[in-house]
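Sample A.
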Amino acid sequence: MQRYRIIGLLLLFAASLLCSKASAQARITRSEFICYDKREDALRDIRTGIDKHIALNPTLQYSSDEGTVRNVYEQVFEVPAAWNDYNAYMHTENIGEDYTIFINGKQITHAVDRLTPTDLFISPYLEQGENTVAIVTVDEPYMSRMDEALTQAERTKFTNCYIFAQRRLAIYDYSVRMLPDSLGRFAQLHLDIIADNSFSTDETINVGYDIYAPDGKLMEYSVNDLALTGHSRDTLRFRPYIYHSNPNRWSAENPKLYDVMLYVKRSGMLWEYIPLSVGFAEYGYNDCGEITLFGKPLKLNKKAYNAAADRATTEQEIRALKKSGINTLCPNYPQPKWFYDICDHVGIYVIDCAAISSTSTGDDRNIGGTPANAPELVDEYLQRVEAMYHRAHNHVCIIAFALGNEGSGNGYNMYKAYELLKAKGDSRAIIYAGADGEWNSDL
């Protein structure tokens, strides 16, 4: 029976290759987070014993050295009846190869690159009771062309892969920054919370937050009602002043962080907590090609660096780099969430980068000569660049965004990627060394 199910998966995947690109409707771009039932669990990141959090560690069912499919991993899990009032999401990273995902025999993504952590909305594909998720690793020539020569530290396969359930009336995403007020006297919290109502009926959600200074003092809090029509989203915007904040301006030399907690109430009950850290910093760039902090040019001592195999080793290495005089890290692709958390707390700048590297054909400007100028790949470029942005933009350590690695060519896809990020309205520079003087790089 197992053999026939796997053969069926392979036939489904082969059929998808004959059609236009397989649907990728399950993939979403938002900040990486999970929600907790209790504040103390949120503060300590305690996920054990939560029935709405399922660790993914599928086992190998099939392997081949020929064809597009390389390996098939499967895991069976239970969806309890209590999940009827919840949305289910899947987070994937550390697969080690490009992959696609099937749930209950249905392909829900096109090929996903091995380097970018990815979030999926999987509720439409689940059934009450027993479900099967299959992670199918693939060898797609166009995928390897896009990120050639990029290597990731070897980690235990499926580390930090999980499924979690979130209420259908909940926080969907958020954006958080601390920027100077209009007169530069103190900080102003810029907090946007996107609330989601997945019910068909009109509902009201109570969304709140509190913010604590680096010394633990409560600075501000608020709870607001938001009425949502059925199957809709809306945004609550908070702009409180945070007084006495100038001594806490974040920099590599002064990495002080404020703690923010988002929470949801309904009928007087608190039922969802999301913890954040935010630093007071305003980045930009000037006509001299310099990145600025509070309007002043930063002196950057940069080094290419990607996270090590685990968090402890990575923090040790980052601290050693900082001690040696390095103040800016330039990863080659999106990193684990804990990498950015470390950089926020240790105090080191980061120029984040999408998982794009096509150095062997970067000089070929003919259409299709380099992936950057192959219009049929534009969706893949935009997915990688947008995923990079949404995963990292809330971290104060991020001073700029790179469209790809140096020498990866330029063309239609890179132009569209630049326009996509520019439309976000972020003050931070969008850079691309491969622009070679063209307009799609701020520096």
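Sample B, a different protein:
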Amino acid sequence: MADQSESSNTARRVAGEEDAVDGVRPLHVASPTNSHELEETFREATRLRTHFVLSGNRTKIDWGLAPRALELGVDLSRMPVIVEHEASDLVVRVSTNVSLDDLQLQLRQKHQRLALDTVVPNTTIGGMIATGLAGPLRYGFGSVRDLIIGATVVRPDGVRAATGGRVVKNVAGYDLAKLYTGSYGTLGAVTEAFFRLHALPETSQFLIFDISLHDIRSFSQLVLFSQVAPSAFEIRDACDGSGIQLGILLEGFEASVRERTSSLAGSLGQEPRVLSHPPEWWGSLPEDTTFKVTLEVASSQEFMAQMHEISGSSGQRLLVTGSIGSGVLFVGASQADRLPAEEIENLTHQVRSAATRAGGFCVVLRAPMGVRRSVDVWGTIPALSVMKRIKAQFDPFDLLAPGRFVGGI
């Protein structure tokens, strides 16, 4: 293989320990400063058959699996910063090295927002697209895939492509933008994205209800079939008998929010705690080992009951949070890294089996390296054969982040 430090005009340096991807350190790191340099870096990697991995703020660099091979890290943090806000069209064009928090600050000046939550502090737009991670607002506004309406991407062979456009009704290439969302950086680099926006609400109120395990189904149905139109519907349960919190976010005009709060309290037969700011657990992932579970909303109570059983029988304290209204939950196991490998495997199997019985599936979203080396992170994915064919089309030499994604993709 040619010396990577001498074969490109893009700034490169010898990699250090801080550049490792899940424990695997590349030989060199390239830091392109514009699209031309990025495309050149990709073309050269393809020509030399160099395995490479993309990074930004590195807040989720240890999600997924370690790459099978890695010679070059590509740091996207020095790419140009772009925020073009078309306020009248409720659309923004943004470079993917911008943090979500910084974008929201700029949009707020025009009383608008991208209706997505900063689940992981300091996450960039690129990291959010790569993992497809959404928080509480997914219930009312949809996920990243629902809000992205276009993107500019650079394929692993260095070819740039554009999909979608500046207006919501322009859907040319719309599915391609969705395809890159949640691909964990294995299909190419998304350099810019277009999102549709929403107006900032006049008032927001967080209603916190204290319920028992046996109340989940009845309370959920009352909320889901009510006319109060929540923006978010969250749950927090420490699985230790201390009680469960349901959190409901109501937004809009002040009079409307006040009326809907009263209506919901009457329907549920309980006066909630009303907060102007979210509780500390709102929209944050459990610490340490975290399973992401998707399930049928109607099966939430049965799933939660099984989490209580697993917590009690295993001695492993579990914490369940997430969008009970959307059927996306996060199960945290704070001491899983202290368990022997066979017990970690058993815990993963139990949570995954419960998710399957609830009509969904379970992945290990994040965990210490020792845990991820002990278990099947992704589990069984029904569409794996299709995903492998897509990967083969976009990256025929399997150079970009090999092995990082599901099924060895």
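Observation for Sample B: The longest strand covers residues 203-211.
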